[in-house]
Design brief:
The chain is of the alpha/beta class. It contains 14 helices and 8 strands. Strands 1, 2, 3, 4, 5, 6, 7 and 8 form an 8-stranded mixed sheet that branches. Helix 5 runs antiparallel to helix 7 and helix 7 packs antiparallel against helix 9. The chain starts with a helix and ends in an 8-residue tail after the last helix. GO terms for molecular function: GTP binding. Keywords: GTP-binding, Nucleotide-binding. This is OBG-type G domain-containing protein.
């Protein structure tokens, strides 16, 4: 090769090497830039997270129901930060889940289904060896029977635990009270029954595995066929012995739980509280727009009387809440009202003075649960005539009970009502009441003589307006927490 050609070849090689080095350098620079951008985008996403924006902008509102909503909102917003979109599973709990409990079939139905499942297992004709064909058929049959018996038991336990975990707090109390009432009959709680079903499933599963292994390792085709017959009957007998009773108990409990009334959480309500036989039901009938209905609960023969009153709201609920006289309830609202809403008036079972909180019966626990977990104002009703009729409804007990309940729920919208004033007052009762109220106004009421009824209706509307303000604020918090991140929020 001539010197000229050698220099030309070297020059071409240098050009190629330089081009390769430049390509490598450009690739490295792009990778570094891309990594830097990702880090900066991550920092921006963290610093501008909706949780941080929410924490800096939320206002302190001290109503207990709203505090629950803000706590719920914080956990939901954290999920939004991670996924950059609202989680579909984070929803405000509502009542009615007790009616959607998993459907549990009777033990006889589960066994019949297992028998039918076993018939679908057929011998594999592709296997020429009779022994191996029978071994496979026997193992698959026993496995199918085991699954047909165990899977429904697993679903019962998991389904109930999931639903109970996601119940609204009020429904949790109702479920607990229902189970407690049944416990008085048979001594078993709901968790006891679920644990029995879980243990029964484990025993059936172990036995099924043993029979499946025995059929798989049978010494002959005939023995494999005999193991199918024997093993299946043994599993059915084991199911009847261990699972039949707890499954039946769950079905009976389910019938009770599925009949519990659903309570609307987006509707303002006033709950009437007081000792037994103080005239709460009469007040509900007097101020309701229609005939009240009775919500019956499975653990008590004394249900909650539920009345309704139609309220016509102005655009700014905080400013004023209007009451329509009874004579005008049939008329269309004028242009000054933004919308109307059917609100609830709830008569609760009577409370008694208790030395220990654990001594309260199911009816009292239901009343306290309604006050604690539902969007309600409180109308505390007293009968100071001395003719309440119940030995536990004396004037002294009623006044003591009022102090205890008000101390327990100090932030609820509240009005005190002295009913049955047409029967007179026990000497000194009025002075004792005014001493406890310490200047707080109260209403003297007589349904028989129509005294104080209009004044009471006005107070009911006022309290419903206060509850609605809280509900609107709770809805705003939930809506804000569920809203996806937008550029305007940054």
């Amino acid at each position: 090769m001539s010197p000229m050609k050698q220099r030309s070849t070297l020059s071409s090689t240098k050009v190629i090497l330089i081009s390769i080095m430049m390509c490598i350098q450009a690739t490295c620079i792009k990778a570094i830039q891309r990594n830097t951008f990702r880090r900066s985008a991550f920092v921006t996403a963290v610093t501008s997270s909706p949780l941080k924006r929410y924490e800096t902008s939320k206002k302190a509102i001290y109503h207990p129901l709203l505090l629950q909503a803000t706590t719920r909102s914080s956990s939901t917003t954290t999920t939004t930060t991670q996924n950059n979109s609202p989680s579909p599973n984070k929803k405000t709990p509502t009542t009615g889940r007790l009616r959607r409990l998993p459907v549990v079939k009777a033990p006889a139905e589960l066994i019949d289904k297992a028998r039918k499942t076993a018939k679908y297992v057929k011998a594999d004709k592709a296997i020429k060896n009779a022994k191996k064909r029978a071994q496979k058929e026997g193992a698959e049959t026993m496995d199918a029977i085991t699954k047909a018996l165990c899977v429904p038991l697993r679903d019962i336990v998991n389904g109930y635990k999931y639903e109970m975990k996601h119940l609204h707090p009020f429904e949790k109390v109702v479920a607990d009270l229902t189970a407690r009432a049944r416990q008085k009959k048979d001594g078993l709680t709901l968790m006891d029954v679920l644990n029995e079903i879980h243990e029964a499933r484990k025993e059936i599963l172990l036995a099924g595995k043993d029979w499946t292994a025995a059929a798989k390792n049978a010494d002959s085709a005939r023995e494999a066929s005999e193991l199918i017959l024997e093993g299946s009957e043994r599993l059915y007998d084991l199911f009847n012995d261990l699972a039949s009773s707890p499954v039946t108990n769950i079905i009976q409990l389910q019938k009770s739980l599925r009949t519990t009334p659903a309570v609307r959480l987006d509707t303002p309500a006033v709950v009437l509280v007081g000792a037994p036989n103080v005239g709460k039901s009469s007040i509900v009938r007097a101020i309701s727009s229609a005939t009240p209905e009775v919500n019956n609960y499975p653990f008590t023969t004394r249900g909650m009387t539920l009345g309704h009153v139609e309220v016509f709201w102005n655009e700014d609920v905080r400013a004023t809440t209007s009451i329509i006289p009874d004579s005008d309830l049939s008329l269309e609202p004028t242009q000054s009202y933004a919308f109307s809403q059917l609100c609830q008036i709830m008569d609760s079972p009577g409370l008694l003075v208790r030395t220990e909180e654990g001594d309260r019966n199911e009816m009292e626990s239901l009343t306290l649960a309604a006050m604690q977990h539902l969007p309600t104002a409180v109308m505390y009703v007293l009968d100071l005539s001395g003719e309440a009729g119940d030995k536990c409804s004396s004037v002294a007990d009623q006044l003591q009970l009022r102090k205890e309940v008000r101390a327990r729920f100090p932030r609820r919208p509240w009005i005190d009502v002295v009913s049955k004033i047409d029967l007179g007052l026990v000497p000194g009762a009025k002075e004792q009441l005014e001493d406890i109220l310490d200047g707080t106004p109260y209403i003297e009421l007589s349904i028989q003589e129509n005294v104080g009824v209009d004044e009471l209706k006005v107070e009911v509307m006022r309290m419903l307006g206060e509850v609605r303000v809280v509900l609107d604020a709770m809805a705003a918090v939930d809506e804000r927490s569920a809203r996806p991140v937008s550029s305007t929020d940054k």
